Each structure stands twice: as C-alpha cells, then as structure tokens.
C-alpha cells in the first residue's frame, strides 16, 4: 500500500519532548485512516535524541529516522526529510511541540483540498516582543511586496503536495521560510490557516529564531530570490538592458569629448572623463556578453530537466 501522508520533523537536542511528540503524531495519524509514515531528521544532536529515536523505532513501526553526520540546520534537515518522504502529502512540523500535532495535523490536512496545493499555518497567538514583532511584520511586508504572497508566517507549519519539491529550486541555508514564496512562483495555490502556538515544555527553542544576523541575511536572501524568480528564465532582460545602458552612457560621454575636441581642440584636462567613457563602454560589452552566456546556461538547464 502506497504511503499517502508523511509527517516530516527535524529534531536537534529534543530528548525531553521527542517521545511525547511521536506519540501525539502517531495517535493523530491513526485517526486519518490513511497509510502514513513519520520521518524524523536528527540534525547531529549532541544529547540523547539520536539514541532515543533509534530505540523508539521498535515501538513505532512507521517511524523513519534519518541521522545527519553534521548539523545542517532547519532548512537542510527539512529538505532532506522532504526528499526521503514517500507520501503524496507532506506535513511539516517542529518536533519541539511548539505546534500541537493533535490539532494542527487534522486542520492542515482538511484545508488541503482539491483547490489548494500548500497550506501554511499562522501562529496568531505568538507574542514575540515589540522589536521581534516589528522585524517579523517588516519582513513579511517586504516578502509580500516582492512576491505578492499574502501570509503572516512564512516559516511555520505546513502541509503540501510532494510534487512541489520537484518543481522548485533546492532550499539553501535558511531558505525554509521562502518555501511558500517559491511554490507560489511556480503557480501552486496557497492557503493560510490559524494555528495555535504552544510555549516549549523543556529546552531552548531552535525553531524560527530570527536575530539581527539572520534578519540581515534574510533580506539579502529575499533579494536573491527576487532576482532568481524574476530573471532566471530571461537573464538577458537584466544583463542586456544594463549592458546597453552602460554602453550608451559611455558612447554619450565619448561624443561629448569628440565635440570638445572639435570645438576647443584640447581635451587633455578631461582625462578622468576619458577613462570613465572607456570604463562604461567596456562594462557595457561585458554585461551584454554575460547576458548571452546566462541565456545559454538557462537553455542547457532546460534541456537537462527534459
């Protein structure tokens, strides 16, 4: 019997809650009356999480445990779990019980109807403090401005059809919060539902921390993804236009210098302007050439995918 539902959960130093998490997920999935599996990705935990998971495989026949040799982070572990999952539908949850599997799994699955490809949860009751709230709101607004994806919580729990991971770019470091954006770009239909946030019972949260360094990195990632989604299939649009503008600017400066030469007869005191004209012309040619090379690479990539 083919697996229909795969619950994927990364785990890093969760020995205090991992058994309770598995019990809740397993009990909940049994009620779905569908073949399922639970995929836990141990992200090179330094406590007893790995040994506990291996021991729990005797108790839970549908448990699949993947061990990372080194810490891959939330994004790397999630992507590994997504690719290993056999289910047609994947449910992504944190293993620290900040999300309650007993309520969130049924709500996510019921919202994933025939008109929806991806359901994303919104921690509507999560209080982060004034600074973090402002940061989160700003980040989500910028994401909406760039990609027109209306969601309050891009990096939280979700349920989606597995085919999505075959049609989006592999997630890089900290790109888990852009999964929704990349799916929307490929034309998949997104729905948001409210889910309740639960404070951790033990340990320190590793899920979704968003400090200053990650904030800066997150905004740069937004720019990279915007560039990727806007110009990756038509790179000449950006490189070609930039090249033409630079070349035209260099040519205009050259015409101006020629005019001065013909009217005044001396342009030796315009040396910086001469260098600037040459620089713009060379840069324009280089950008235009890069556009051609990028177009060839896109064509080759398309042939490989076919």
How would you sum up this structure, described in words?
The protein has 10 helices and 7 strands. By secondary structure, it is of the alpha/beta class. The protein has 2 domains: 5-230, Alpha-Beta Complex (Spore Coat Polysaccharide Biosynthesis Protein SpsA, Chain A), CATH 3.90.550.10; 236-305. Helix 9 packs antiparallel against helix 10 (271-305). It is elongated and about 90 Å long. The mean pLDDT is 85.
Query: What are the segments in which pLDDT stays under 50 over at least 5 consecutive residues?
Result: none
Total domains, how many?
2
What spatial form do the alpha-carbon principal axes imply? elongated
Strand order, main sheet: write it out: 3-2-1-4-6-5-7
CATH class of the largest domain: Alpha Beta
What characterizes the major β-sheet? 7 strands, mixed
CATH 4th-level superfamily of the largest domain: Spore Coat Polysaccharide Biosynthesis Protein SpsA, Chain A
């Amino acid at each position: 019997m083919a697996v229909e539902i795969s619950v994927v959960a990364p785990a890093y130093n969760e020995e205090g809650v991992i058994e309770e998490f598995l019990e809740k997920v397993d009990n909940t999935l049994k009620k779905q009356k569908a073949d399922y599996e639970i995929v836990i990705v141990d992200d090179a935990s330094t406590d007893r999480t790995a040994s506990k998971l291996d021991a729990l495989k005797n108790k839970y026949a549908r448990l699949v445990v993947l061990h990372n040799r080194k810490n891959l982070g939330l994004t790397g572990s999630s992507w590994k779990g997504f690719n290993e999952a056999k289910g047609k539908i994947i449910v992504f949850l944190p293993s620290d019980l900040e999300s309650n599997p007993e309520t969130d799994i049924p709500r996510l699955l019921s919202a994933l109807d025939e008109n929806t490809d991806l359901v994303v949860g919104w921690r509507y009751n999560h209080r982060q403090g004034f600074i973090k709230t402002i940061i989160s709101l700003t980040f989500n607004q910028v994401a909406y401005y760039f990609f027109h994806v209306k969601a309050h919580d891009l990096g939280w729990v979700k349920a989606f059809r597995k085919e999505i991971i075959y049609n989006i770019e592999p997630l890089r470091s900290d790109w888990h919060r852009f999964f929704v954006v990349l799916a929307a770009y490929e034309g998949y239909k997104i729905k948001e539902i409210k889910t309740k946030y639960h404070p951790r019972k033990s340990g320190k949260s590793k899920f979704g921390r968003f400090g200053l360094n990650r904030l800066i990195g997150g905004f740069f990632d937004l720019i990279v993804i915007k560039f990727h989604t806007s110009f990756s299939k038509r790179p000449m649009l950006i490189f070609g236009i930039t090249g033409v503008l630079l070349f035209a600017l260099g040519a205009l400066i050259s015409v101006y210098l020629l005019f001065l030469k013909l009217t005044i007869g001396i342009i030796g005191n315009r040396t910086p302007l001469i260098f600037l004209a040459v620089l713009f012309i060379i840069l324009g040619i280089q950008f235009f050439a890069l556009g051609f090379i990028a177009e060839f690479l896109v064509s080759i990539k398309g042939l490989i995918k076919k």
